[in-house]
Design a protein that fits this description.
By secondary structure, the chain is of the alpha+beta class. The protein has helices spanning 14-24, 70-80, 127-145, 150-154, 163-178, 186-195, 240-248, 275-286, 293-316, 323-343; strands at residues 31-34, 42-48, 51-57, 90-94, 104-108, 204-206, 215-217, 225-228, 235-237. It folds into 2 domains: 14-108, Phosphorylase Kinase, domain 1, CATH 3.30.200.20; 127-343, Aminoglycoside phosphotransferase (APH), C-terminal lobe (Aminoglycoside 3'-phosphotransferase, Chain: A, domain 2).
């Protein structure tokens, strides 16, 4: 993977080493270390000799148990292993509270790059590479959204009926659990989303947090999807919400001070393909209409603001001391301002 461990290898506790040896069929010694990147579930690099895996487990402080459910994430990866969707192969999951560090899941380590605000050194700079990156993302997302979710064991994984109609109530309610400041545009956008809600489309697998940081691309020289990662928000619903989030963060037409500037910052370089070009690539790949794209971009940023405000509330309470959490003081209002632009309630970015 393109992420790197942030400190020298750390041996695992003996009880965990015994479990891993039995579960993986590999002799130790094992080491387990945090990987850079990620602000939700913890992602760690597991090593034994020249073998590598990735471990996912919930953070110590979790706002929502459902958003850190290792069983759900493992189940999605097991299902996707039956399809052409690029995703890490699951290896094993552990929910035994007697095993140190549980619950967690182990999956294959993917060689590639997760891109944020700069192209990797192995990619040539320039518009052609930016187009290849954007189109690779759309190809991965289209593959996910055309996956036959019912026949691969996910028929009861979510509640797709009435999915869009539940969104405003659900995320408004979650925000109220930790709301501690006024958020301009939040209530107005909730009302706009209800008033302009499009008809329910064909359900599909919704990743829930799809952007370049959560897509591994091949090392090069060919640029193609290697694996979509970080599946803790996955469900069955209207998959166009994934497209709305990705395209909301994409491109040179974002404001001078965008929300979360690190996310897909590479897309704001000159020569980047437009949102319209990427939407057309996606529609061609999976056959879904992108007629109401502005509504989905609005919902995606509004929903994200409601979710990450919880991390900022933890920061204010002294429970989460990271640069990411501190910056949410400004990023949450900026997300809502951009959402208001997508909705036509404010000048469009």
């Amino acid at each position: 993977m393109s992420e790197t461990a942030v400190r020298p290898p750390t041996p695992v506790p003996p009880e965990l080493a015994d479990w891993l040896q039995d579960a993986l069929g590999v002799d130790g010694p094992f080491s387990l270390d945090p990987l850079t990147g990620g602000n939700s579930n913890e992602t760690l690099l597991l090593r034994a000799g020249d073998r590598r895996w990735v471990v996912r487990r919930p953070p110590a402080e979790a706002i929502s148990k459902s958003a850190h459910d290792m069983g759900r994430e493992h189940r999605v990866l097991v299902a996707l292993a039956q399809t052409d969707v690029p995703a890490p192969a699951p290896v094993v999951a552990c929910a035994d509270p007697d095993v140190p560090g549980a619950p967690f899941m182990v999956m294959e380590a993917i060689d590639g790059h997760a891109i944020a605000d700069a192209l990797p050194a192995s990619y040539p700079p320039g518009p052609d590479t930016l187009r290849a990156v954007g189109f690779a993302a759309m190809d991965a997302l289209a593959a996910l959204h055309r996956a036959p979710w019912e026949s691969i064991g996910l028929a009861d994984f979510g509640r797709p009926a009435g999915f869009l109609g539940r969104q405003v109530g659900r995320w408004s309610g979650q925000l109220q659990r930790y709301r501690h400041r006024e958020l301009p545009w939040f209530d107005e956008l909730g009302a706009w989303l209800e008033e302009h809600r499009p008809p329910d489309g064909e359900p599909g697998i919704l990743h829930g947090d799809f952007h370049l940081d959560n897509l591994m691309l091949t090392p090069g020289p060919e640029i193609a999807p290697a694996a979509i990662i970080d599946w803790e928000m996955a469900t069955i619903g209207d998959p166009l919400l994934d497209l709305g989030l990705f395209l909301g963060f994409w491109g040179t037409d974002r404001p001078a001070e965008p929300a979360m500037p690190h996310v897909q910052g590479v897309s704001r370089a000159p020569g980047s393909p437009s949102r319209a070009e990427l939407a057309a690539r996606y529609a061609e790949g999976c056959g879904r209409s992108v007629e109401h794209l502005d509504w989905y971009m609005t919902l995606a940023f509004w929903k994200l603001a409601a979710i990450v405000e919880g991390a900022y509330a933890q920061h204010v309470q002294g429970l989460l001391d990271t640069p990411y959490a501190a910056r949410l003081e400004h990023d949450v209002p900026l997300l809502l301002a951009e959402a208001a632009g997508f909705a036509g309630l404010a000048p469009r970015p």
